[in-house]
Amino acid sequence: MKFLHISDLHLGKRVNEFSMTEDQKYILKQILYIGEQEQTDGVLLAGDIYDKPVPSAEAVQIFDWFLTGLADRGMKVFAVSGNHDSPERVAFGAQLMQGRGVYLSPVYEGDITGIPLQDQYGELSVYLLPFVKPALVRHALENEPEARIPESYQDAVRIAVERMKIDVKKRNLLVAHQFVTGAGRCDSEEASVGGLDNVDGAVFDDFDYVALGHIHSPQSVGRESIRYCGTPLKYSFSEAEQIKSVTVVEMGEKGNVRISTVPLVPLRDMRKIRGTYLEVTAKSFYRDFDREDYLQVTLTDEEDVPDALQKLRIIYPNLMRLAYDNSRTRQDREVEAALAVEQKSELELLGEFYELQNNQPMSGEQAAFAEALIRELKGEHAL
User: Fold this and answer.
1) Tell me: the pLDDT tens digits for 169-208?
2) What residues pair up with 173 in beta bridges, in sequence order?
3) Which of 21, 38, 209, 332 is deepest in the core (most CB within 10 A)?
4) Residue 351: its pLDDT value, please?
5) How would DSSP label each residue in 83-137?
């Protein structure tokens, strides 16, 4: 059985005040085409369908068109809500849509049942876990006196998984939207202070493949079959050098999972260029790339160029960001960096130091312990 794994569509998103709607329609058409070419049985959509909890009418129409296109091509859809989505809005009409093979995660109420599929290797169960946090799981279990009470994201996800009652002898696939410890972030993602939203990949040990969303860079975490597919489009200049793709997952017999990627080609790329004003406005500089791309231009002139943004947009109509890199701006950045350190809490500074030393953020338990220790030390100092 073959699946396309996608996530973080962020329909309706604006980047530096530029609407990404046209680009999103273009890339979704490409995903439909890839699905046909790969002869996939289904699509795993791992959250952040929309960019806002209350999406625009246009964003909803685009998603409706995309779901219809998948269903018309005979591809089942398995989608969960992410932290940017309203779980209630994503779940609307879920029972009706199942008739066309579109499965949407319901609002989390404490129990998740696998969706059974069948192929030549037997039964495969797909589990849909919407974005959960401790408060959500506590609320879902408040009428169960014997239930464990989650104190961290790790607890919340572990409890949610344990309650699925997975048959490990069969093949199991999970679609989820969480931050797994060790994953690398981009500027376009929302980060939790001190890594409090961390989840250890070990909680997913019973699944043959885990289709994750939330992180915008394509990567596997812990093992190859715990994977973030990344966004289909670049949403920040920190992603400028990435090659976006869809992940193709082939589920063979138990223990046999084959993973590959198919690159995506955007309507407009996102790139960074730098040089003096005279350099970046010379035809010899820009003749070899598409001037319609989304650009960040960094000018190295020592003096600001009057009306540089408007002048440059005559050549580069989709210039998103203009910056300067010279002796003055470098000095300003040093001052800003010092002020930023002064404004951060002890926990934020410790979290940044830990990540620098260990190449991964603190786990939820580590952050909670550090926070308690900092409070204790501050209390002793006050005495």
Assistant:
1) 999 999 999 988 766 666 655 655 445 678 888 899 999 9
2) 126, 209
3) 209
4) 78
5) TTS-HHHHHTTHHHHGGGTEEEPPPP-S----EEEEETTEEEEEEEE----HHHH
